[in-house]
Amino acid sequence: MAEQRKKKPASGAPAPGAPGREVRRAAPNRGEVDRPAAYESLIEKRSGLSELLAPVAGFGVTFANMFKPTVTEQYPREQVPTKPRYHGRHQLNRYADGLEKCIGCELCAWACPADAIYVEGGDNTPDAQFSPGERYGRVYQINYLRCIFCGLCIEACPTRALTMTNEYELAGPTRPGMIWEKQDLLAPLRSGQLAAPHPMVEGTSDTDYYRGQVTGVTDDQVAWVAEHRPDDPTLPENAAKGAKVPDLGETRLAQRAITAGAHRQGGAR
Ligand code: SF4
């Protein structure tokens, strides 16, 4: 029985004579083989007292920091201003006369690696001119549950319509409330600006707007808004009477109310 058993090849070695397997033979010994020299550290060896104190030296960093002022920010009790170039929530900017800079090109949405931006463009018409040129951003949404604040959308925007503010308090108690609409993202109207839609400054093109050659509203634009929206709070006559221009969109107002309710119940900070 023992003679009938075939000898097993050594682990990893092919069976002698097995089909399709190359039989390798050990290379003949050709004399001395170069061996790497033993490892030698380039760090100088310590000796005496220095060697004794080496383990303690690491604590030097700890002791040195124990007497420095603490840098822990006591958020939310104290709100420390961010660095100027901090990537906070987005803002859709306006030109000096109040027209929107966004042209609805969707480049920001395509650039977004998290697929957090949704844009639908629309056509400007003589009765509803929201931005200089042919197109404007009819629908604009940013999903702050997805946004990673990388800023690639800002780089992609051809009109500098989209920038990022330093605002970072974006948490909210509801999922729908984290999808910000165009009205939530539009820059608040400054004094002297007219809410869109209204015609462009007479005799200008969209290129003039891009080049910063429009510096404010004209009498013709004010007259057009007065005729079409006499109650518009951004009209100078209404502003003089104390008409309030809303600076928050509906989503943000609703979110603020829900958060305030949660605060009262102790459900949020
Ligand atoms: S924000 Fe800029 S990139 Fe995005 S759709 Fe508007 S114009 Fe295009």
Keywords, please?
269 residues; alpha+beta; Alpha-Beta Plaits; disordered N terminus; binds iron/sulfur cluster
Structure, explained:
By secondary structure, the protein is an alpha+beta fold. The protein has a domain at 90-266: Alpha-Beta Plaits (2-Layer Sandwich). Helix content is 25%, strand content 9%. The radius of gyration is 35 Å and the shape is elongated. The longest helix has 15 residues, at 250-264. The protein contains 9 helices and 5 strands. The strands form 2 sheets. It has a 3-stranded antiparallel sheet with strand order 2-3-5. The protein has a two-stranded antiparallel ribbon with strand order 1-4. Bound molecules: iron/sulfur cluster. Iron/sulfur cluster binds at residues 102-108, 119, 137, 156-157, 159, 161-162. Iron/sulfur cluster binds next to α3.
Summarize the structure.
The chain is α+β, with helices and mostly antiparallel strands and 269 residues long. Helices cover 25% and strands 9% of the residues. The chain has helices spanning 49-57, 59-66, 107-111, 152-156, 182-185, 206-210, 219-228, 236-240, 250-264, and strands spanning 90-92, 117-123, 135-143, 162-164, 179-180.
